[in-house]
Each structure stands twice: as structure tokens, then as C-alpha cells.
């Protein structure tokens, strides 16, 4: 059952340890559906071009469909004694239908077969991640709309900077994840050419129709160069890069979640279903899901480096090094899907402490820029206004006052242009509402951003 497809040239069996080292079936077994779909398309094409008889093709296709059904149901499991999933399926097919099964591999190599299978598999995987990202973005839009008027401090250098809304903060991540979808879709489009028919590297002498198999498998076209078709995995690298950016964005958001639910911030509280406790400290409620996401970003980034390093010194065409592509890229997809599956409901169920956000925004002079803008509107050049307000802030800090609690005489120590209307200019609600520039933090702008993202999601 587990005879090597290449056994004819060799006079003795492969060393047991070498066999285990060489085998990939524990990894590539997940591609059985794609492998069978590719073989069905190949068998149909062999019949249409007269390379195998219609009766043989019918037997092959029927046998492949029965293997597909049995593996789907669990009635048939991959035999780990086989070298790879391609060997297992071909040998199982021959066991079921006899000599006709041995004709399936006509005009095909494992090189173009595996190149096909991984493209089909990653196309499906990318589609799954895109669907999960859409769910996450939808949750972010809903939260943003619900909290478009909740004021919080915006930060630069982890220092309170200017007043923003919580909805605006979340929409920043929505746009990041929207671009991630774009990168995944772009990579999938570039990947969507069919390597089947490239053979081992040089094509085949049989009169195959590569355009037929490409159409049957949903590809835009066959790849134009047989060497390129079997010897590059740039699509794996490109997808791994896109996945690294997904995880980077998830990690940045997770870092904020971790900060926001600390006692020092208390901006949010995570639902108990997405928190853990301590074995010794009964008061603890830990954001472990966010922390794991932050940590797992490292393995996805590492997979990208693995793929780049694996490819960097390979001459054309296929080399066994390329077997390492699957573990890295499959792990990246699995990790990202798991993270998205957990992070999306974690965000959807968190409780927002808007009072704490507002209280934090009231400290730290985050309306100082608005104070300087006030003077600029009165005719003072912005750089002079900036200096005057900076000196005012330093004075108020020494006096233990804020811009809101300072009296007008405090203001006039630094500019005669200050008047009673300055208090309206530095009011946090006004500071936020007046930021009406395109893409700004005003509640109206946040709602427009959410509507824009929802509209763009429908087009993807």
C-alpha cells in the first residue's frame, strides 16, 4: 500500500529515519480535498484530449469521488506510512479501481500536483480569513457608532495628547483590517494561475489542454512558464506577509485592550468568557486572550522569515527544501484564524467605562492645542500662540490648576487676546465636535467613517 511512487529506480527501501524525515503526509493530509479536485479535473482533461479512454476516466473520477466522500466522513483516514497525501490517494485509487488508477498520473508530476494543491488550499484559506476579518470589522463599526460621542484621551508617545472619541480610536483599526483584506485579496488574485500541466519542470509531450483544467478549477489562466509554475512559492510569502500584518494589527489592538482594562486605566472591562484568573491571587482578572494574540504574532512573523529564507538560495526548478513551505504558511493561517475567532467576540462583549475615559480626558491639558488655535483665530501667529499656551500650561501645572479651572486673569498673564469665550473653546465636547476635517474625530466624522467601511465591505 505504501510503495514509493519513485521506487522503480531503487534497489532497497529508504532508511526508516530518512523516510520519516522525508515524509510530509502529516502536514499535507489537510489538502486531500484540493488534491482530489485537481485529480478529477486532470482526469477529465485526459479523457477530452484522448490521452485516456472515457471509460478509464469515468472509473478514475468515480473512484476519486468515493475517496473524497470517505475521507470527509471519516471512514477513510490517511495512511501515515505513505510519503505524502498524493501518494496515498493515488494508491488508494488503484486499490479500488485497479489498473485504470495507474493512468491518472499521465502527463503530470508531483511537482505540478503539489503546486496546484497548495494554491487551491491557500485560496480557500485566504477566503476564510477574509470572512473572519469582515466579522471583526463589522463589530468595530458597531462599537464605533455606539461610542461616537464618548470622549477619551488620544495618545502619542503614550502621553495624553488631544481629545478624541472612542469610536474614532476603534475606526482606526477598522481601516487597518480593511487594508488587510485588500492585501489578502490582491495576493489571492496574483496566485490564481494554474500550474497543473507544468510537469516536473518542462511541460509534457502529451497533447494536454491546460486551459481546460485551469477553467475547471476556477483559475484565471494557466501559468505561462512551466519552470515558474513549479519552482516558486512567492504567493506563500506574499500571503504570509499579509497574515503578519493582520497579526501585527491584532497585536497593537490587543496591547491597547491590555492597557485599557488595567486598574490604571479602567477604560474597559472584558467579559468573563474572555478572561482568566490567578491560581493564587483571587482578585485577578487577566486579559489572557489579548496577551496570547500579542505573543502569537511572533510565530506568524517567524513563519514569514522561514519562507523567505527557504527560498532565497534555491536554483530552478523544484527542490525538496520547498516542502517546508506548508508547515510555515499553514501555521500562519491557523494562528490568524484562531486569533480572529477569539478576538472578535472578545471585543463585541467588552464593557465600556465611558466615565473613566472622560475623567482621563479631563487631565493632562489635552485641550492645549485648542487653546492655541483659539489665539490663532484671534490673529496671533500659530507659533506665537503655541509658545504662549506652553508657558500658560507650565504656570498652571505649578499652581495645581487646569485650563478649565484657571481664571481669566491667569490666561491674560500670557496673552491679552484671551477672553471669557476661551472656556467654550477648550470645552472637551467642543474640542471634539469642532474637529470636522475629513477623517477627524468628530462624532459626525466617526459615523461617516463607519458607514464608509460598511459600504466598502459589501463590495469585497
Which key terms come to mind for this protein?
mainly alpha, Fumarase C, Chain B, domain 1, two-stranded parallel sheet, 61% helix, Ribonucleotide Reductase Protein R1, domain 1, two-stranded antiparallel ribbon, 6 strands, Fumarase C, Chain A, domain 2, single chain, 460 residues, 19 helices
Number of strands: 6
- The tally of helices reads 19
CATH topology assignment of the largest domain: Fumarase C, Chain A, domain 2
- What Rg is obtained from the alpha carbons, in whole angstroms? 30 Å
CATH superfamily of the largest domain: Fumarase/aspartase (Central domain)
Question: How far do the termini sit from each other?
Answer: 46 Å
Identify the CATH class of the largest domain: Mainly Alpha
| Order of helix and strand elements from N to C terminus | HHHHHHEEHEHEHHEHHEHHHHHHH
Beta-strand level of the residues, as a percent range?
A: under 5%
How confident overall, as mean pLDDT?
Answer: 95
What form results from the Cα inertia axes? elongated
Q: Give the helix/strand class.
A: mainly alpha
Give the uncertain stretches in residue-range form. Answer: none
Taking strands numbered 1, 2, ... along the chain, how are they ordered across the largest sheet? 1-2
| CATH architecture term of the largest domain | Up-down Bundle
Q: Strand count, sense and closure of the main sheet?
A: 2 strands, antiparallel
Indicate the percent of residues in helices: 55-70%
How many domains make up the coordinates?
3
